[in-house]
User: Which sequence fits this backbone?
């Protein structure tokens, strides 16, 4: 499931804090980023319409129907497909070429590759 940035802000609140009322989400986002109640409710309703949030009563209780890892996977797949012609190695080359990595980070990446390769890399 693909989320727009505004939808991700609402989903992040639910992923971090669990089920909340729409008012509680609105209060949090007002404090964090300055959104008014109408903006928050509009975005919540969009998330409900796309099947990302389930609404229940009492008090317009919101429950996330998708997890953060599921959303990350969908967005990563889209990024790889759109910008890197479906090539994971092109994505990694672009990411790794932008920043000097510490020896610990390099070893962590090696371990990830070993784990993906069954421990033989």
Assistant:
């Amino acid at each position: 499931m693909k989320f727009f940035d505004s939808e991700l802000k609402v989903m992040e609140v639910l992923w971090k804090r669990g089920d909340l009322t729409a008012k509680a989400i609105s209060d949090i986002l007002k404090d964090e980023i300055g959104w008014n109640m109408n903006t928050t409710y509009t975005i919540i309703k969009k998330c409900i319409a796309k099947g990302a949030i389930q609404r229940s009563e009492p008090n317009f209780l919101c429950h996330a129907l998708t997890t953060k890892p599921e959303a990350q996977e969908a967005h990563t797949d889209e990024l790889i497909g759109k910008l890197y012609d479906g090539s994971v190695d092109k994505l990694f080359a672009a990411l790794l070429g932008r920043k000097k990595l510490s020896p610990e980070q390099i070893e962590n990446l090696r371990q990830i590759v070993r784990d993906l390769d069954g421990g033989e890399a």
Q: What stands out?
A: Helices lie at 5-17, 22-33, 37-49, 68-83, 88-96, 103-116.
